[in-house]
Design a protein that fits this description.
The complex is a heterodimer. Chain A contains 20 helices and 22 strands. Chain A is α/β, with parallel strands linked by helices. In chain A, the strands form five sheets. Chain A has a six-stranded parallel β-sheet with strand order 3-2-4-5-7-6, with helices on both faces. A six-stranded parallel β-sheet of chain A has the order 11-10-9-12-13-14, sandwiched between helices. In chain A, strands 16-15-17-18-20-19 form a six-stranded parallel β-sheet, with helices on both faces. In chain A, α7 crosses α12, α10 runs antiparallel to α13 (344-361) and α14 packs parallel to α20 (527-539). The N and C termini of chain A lie far apart (71 Å). Chain B is of the alpha+beta class. Chain B is built from four helices and nine strands; from the N terminus they run βαββαββαββαββ. In chain B, strands 5, 6, 7, 8 and 9 form a five-stranded antiparallel β-sheet that branches. In chain B, strands 2-3-1-4 form a four-stranded antiparallel β-sheet, with helices on one face. Chain B is elongated. Chain B starts with a strand and ends in an 8-residue tail after the last strand. The relative contact order of chain B is 0.21. The chains are: A alpha/beta, B alpha+beta. The A-B interface holds A 119-120, 123-124, 127-129, 131, 148, 182-185, 306-308, 311-312 and B 10, 13-14, 17-18, 21, 25, 55, 58-59, 62-63, 65-66, 68-71, 163.
Chain lengths: 578, 163
């Protein structure tokens, strides 16, 4: 059997776990590992400029491909910098393995240079974590980490590796385990057939049904099954922020995103629904508004691979624990084999009602905001133009704030894994490194980071890594000269007292900044330049382009839930509410 | 409502901190906790008492099951079970009260396990309510120190928590 050092084993095991790109940043405790990377060419290492960004990029690569993302950081500050990235992945259930180097075991607990208890610090942000104590254990630990990260409800796994374990002078036998078995971890692989039968019966009898589909459908590759079931039933479908694209945004049956900034028709339909089929969604507080007033007349069917997601925030009538794709196709099979029919007249009436809501306040039927004028560009129009120029086919990442909500509302995603954002943790700074991860996965695709002048500055340093690794992402800054979402809340709830959301002329010149990194910068201040500049931007296939677009300083995102309230309680504009 | 939850846990470094961390992270309380390896050294048996409504307990059970190191979870308070806790007390025992304490220990079927010129160490075992009652019966004036193991418990009958 082949004898290898711990550092070599670690990298070999990562290759055997099918890692193609390892996003990372070196440091003292990781030196043996980095030397092992230097001496091989099975996997490529992508040097980022900050560990948070390395983890975000690995995370987005996983979101884009469905594979397990992988990142490598050094001990101490490298490890703590990675935490925001790990927590982001944890909240959105992203399969990822993060290797953190650690000081040698003999120094652990002595407050050694760059020592941090990574297992302790990361504990609330991981699905699981391991510290490897012997080189003989590395391969098996890596195999377990990848297995845990990618099965059941996915999530990040941290593997902490003390420096002595990767010692080049200590060589041991290498064998990557073919199978992993853990007696304490057996994810559910099928839904309970009795529960599925009950669910199908309830679903067929519905008069005002809504299918509420979440990020689990994207992660669980269940989009096809969801589409087939929804089409067979002709029921309206709403997607969560994390689920956008799982059901096509341009489909007639799609009523838009639901939740705090969901469409009028989606939120109102949810409120009046008699049956809700929730798939891979977790009744998050940004969806439900006040849980005690949530969908008062609905019977709820909830499909989720994680039992603890079921009945966590709202009561559920028919829980089904299992992978979304398997459960949905079982449901569809039962419907087709039994040739079961929906209550067509009732569904027809329901659609009439929904179409009425669409016509009244829907954001897609007509413009619900003051149109752009030539010297006042509306952020919504930027997204609409982006949609037009990229023909709705771009892979879009976003940061957090108003721009994120505008992108979610106005870019109609037709495919799963087309939209990438930090929905759970709400991490500003996610957008740019995420775009890099996505671009690495799809080098020929148009990858766009829709961001704000606030968020982009949280990971701006990665512009350098874009150059180094030839990742020609496009960055669209909706520049409203303020932290827009916070400012919106200050407008609505704090008498427009703008506490620390303005920059007082301190914003950088983004064009010069782009140029300083060797990229292209464009500034757009007038509406009549918008489309042509954007065309120009996307024509530069091989360049990173920053478009700094001045947008209306006073625009708010609507609809917006009135809190605390029910799903149908919304502000529709600054002056109108339901 | 008080609940007694028993967990079979991989006997790995850090696995206890995951359980304890889960409780603080999600805002649940641990009233008492006892943990030790089982006859199979790779497994630990952890017993904890907590309080909460049915919804909270359901979530606690689910979240515990979700931890990778947790092999099995059972809510002992759902069925008939035996629960025991051990308590050691150091008490002031001089003069007339010395005999009085001895009588009280006998009534509670405890033992005096250490005797000093002015102190006793008393051992009492039983359900937590019995231990509480003993403390009450002695009164604060004589008690110098109290240490309790936390509750451990088993289901009655043939069912058992095994891998």
């Amino acid at each position: 059997m082949e004898l290898l050092s711990g550092g070599d084993i670690l990298i070999r095991a990562l290759s055997d776990a099918k890692v193609k790109h390892l996003w990372g940043y070196p440091g003292g405790a990781a030196l043996h590992i980095y030397d092992a990377i230097f001496r091989q060419d099975n996997l490529s290492h992508v040097l980022m400029r900050h560990e948070q960004a390395a983890v975000h990029a690995a995370d987005a690569y996983a979101r884009a491909t469905g594979e397990v993302g992988a990142a490598l950081v050094t001990s101490g500050p490298g490890a703590t910098n990675a935490i925001t990235g790990i927590a982001t992945a944890y909240m959105d259930s992203i399969p990822m393995v993060v290797i953190s180097a650690q000081v040698p075991q003999e120094k652990i607990g002595e407050d050694a240079f760059q020592e941090i208890d990574m297992i302790g610090v990361s504990r609330p942000t991981v699905k699981h974590s391991y510290m490897v104590k012997r080189p003989e254990d590395i391969a098996e630990t890596i195999a377990k980490a990848f297995y845990i990260a990618s099965t059941g409800r996915p999530g990040p796994v941290v593997v902490d590796v003390p420096k002595d374990v990767t010692d080049p002078n200590n060589k041991v036998a290498y064998k990557y385990p073919e199978k992993v078995k853990l007696r304490s971890y057996q994810p559910t692989t099928r839904g309970h057939s009795g529960q599925i039968k009950r669910a199908v019966n309830l679903l067929m009898s519905a008069k005002r049904p809504v299918i509420y589909s979440g990020g689990g459908v994207v992660l669980g590759n269940a989009s096809e099954q969801l589409r087939a079931l929804a089409r067979r039933l002709n029921y309206p479908v709403t997607n969560t922020l994390m689920g956008l694209g799982a059901f096509p945004g341009t489909d007639r049956q799609f009523v838009g995103m639901l939740g705090m900034h969901g469409t009028f028709e989606a939120n109102t339909a949810m409120h009046h629904a008699d049956v809700i089929l929730a798939v891979g969604a977790r009744f998050d507080d940004r969806v439900t508004n006040a849980t005690e007033r949530f969908c008062p007349s609905a019977k709820i069917i909830h499909i989720d691979v994680d039992p603890s997601s079921i009945a966590k925030t709202v009561r559920v009538d028919i829980p089904i624990v299992g992978p979304c794709d398997v459960v949905l196709s079982d449901m569809l099979d039962q419907i087709q084999q039994g040739d079961l029919q929906t209550d067509e007249p009732a569904i027809g009436e329901w659609w009439q009602q929904i179409d009425g809501w669409r016509a009244r306040h829907g954001i897609y039927t007509e413009s619900r905001y003051e149109p752009s004028t030539n010297d006042n560009i509306k952020p919504q129009d930027v997204i609409k133009t982006l949609y037009k120029v990229t023909k709705g086919e771009a892979l879009v990442t976003s940061d957090v704030g108003q721009h994120q909500m505008f992108a979610a509302q106005y870019y109609l995603f037709d495919k799963p894994r087309q939209w990438f954002n930090s929905g759970g943790l709400g991490t500003m700074g996610f957008g740019l490194p995420a775009a890099m991860g996505v671009q690495m996965a799809y080098p020929d695709a148009n990858v766009v980071c829709v961001t704000g002048e606030g968020s982009i500055q949280m990971c701006i340093q990665e512009l350098a890594a874009c150059t180094q690794h030839q990742l020609p992402v496009k960055i669209i800054i909706l520049n409203n000269q303020a932290l827009g979402m916070v400012k919106q809340w200050q407008d609505m709830q704090y008498g427009s007292r703008y506490s620390h959301v303005l920059y007082e002329d301190s914003l950088p010149d983004f064009v010069k900044l782009a140029e300083a990194y060797g990229h292209v910068g464009m500034k757009v201040t007038h509406y009549d330049q918008l489309e042509s500049s954007m065309e120009e931007c996307f024509a530069m296939k091989d360049r990173v382009v920053i478009m700094d677009i001045s947008v209306d300083h006073h625009e708010h995102v609507y609809p917006m839930h009135v809190a605390p309230g029910s799903m149908r309680d919304m502000w529709l504009s600054k002056t109108e509410r339901t | 409502m008080k609940r007694l939850i028993s967990v079979l846990l991989e006997n790995e470094p850090g696995s206890l901190s995951r359980v304890v961390g889960l409780f603080s992270q999600r805002g649940y309380n641990i009233d008492s906790l006892s943990v030790a390896p089982t006859e199979d050294k790779t497994l630990s048996r952890l017993t904890l008492t907590t309080a909460g409504d049915d919804h909270t307990i359901e979530q606690i059970t689910k979240q515990l099951n979700k931890l990778i190191d947790v092999v099995k979870v059972i809510d002992l308070s759902e069925g008939v079970h035996i629960e025991r806790e051990l308590m050691l007390l150091k008490v002031k025992a001089s003069g007339a009260v010395r005999a009085e304490i001895k009588r009280c220990v006998d009534i509670f079927r405890g033992q005096i396990v250490d005797v000093g010129p002015t102190t006793y160490v008393v051992q009492i075992m039983g359900e937590s309510t019995k231990l509480d009652a003993f403390i009450e019966a002695l009164g604060d004036a004589v008690i110098l120190e109290v240490v309790r193991t936390g509750v451990c418990g088993l289901m009655r009958g043939e069912k058992s928590l095994k891998v």
